[in-house]
Each structure stands twice: as C-alpha cells, then as structure tokens.
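Researcher: Structure for this, please.
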Amino acid sequence: VQLQASGGGLVQPGGSLRLSCAASGSIFSIGTMAWYRQRPGKQRELVAAIPSTGRTNYADSVKGRFTISRDNAKNTLYLQMNSLKPEDTAVYYCNAPNAWGQGTQVTVSS
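Model: Predicted structure, token format:
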C-alpha cells in the first residue's frame, strides 16, 4: 500500500488541524497504523497508533489533545490535533506496516 499525507499548515498556538493519510488500497486488513513526527533537530517519534481493533496509543506529550482514527471504508487514517503548541511543530508522517507517507509540515507559531 502507498500512503499520501495531507492537512498540514501554519496554525496559531491553541489552534487545531486535522491530518489525513489516504491509502492506495484497502486498509481493512492492515494491522496497526500510526502517526509519527520529526521535530527540528530531533529523531522521528511515535505520536499515536491505532490497531485494526483495540485501544489506541498516544505519546504522553499529546494525550488529551490529539485523536487518531481510521475510516476503513475510505481507506484513510486521521489525526485530529487540538490545543496545538509551538513544540508540536514538526513534519508528520503516517505509517502502516512496510509503508510511510511522504510527510506533511505542521508549524505552530504566532
């Protein structure tokens, strides 16, 4: 499967964005999908993960602010990001087993 991320942009602190990751094929049978991010000067880190069934998982830094979801009918993964902070500035990547999206830039700044 190929992944195409979108939805990034410039937003003020406290604002919201929703990232989307469209898959080229069915994600119904794909296990865990996830969002990662790479902040300037830092290594890529896990932001949130969602299995095909079961509980979602979040990095401590985004708990209560970000929500990961998947729509198997639309073959799309989402990341709703609320109460954004400057430290959320990063390139965000979607991930599935053996596949990465191209990354979408999120900049949080006044």
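Researcher: Any notable elements?
Model: The longest strand covers residues 17-23. Residues 70 and 77 are 4 Å apart (CA to CA).
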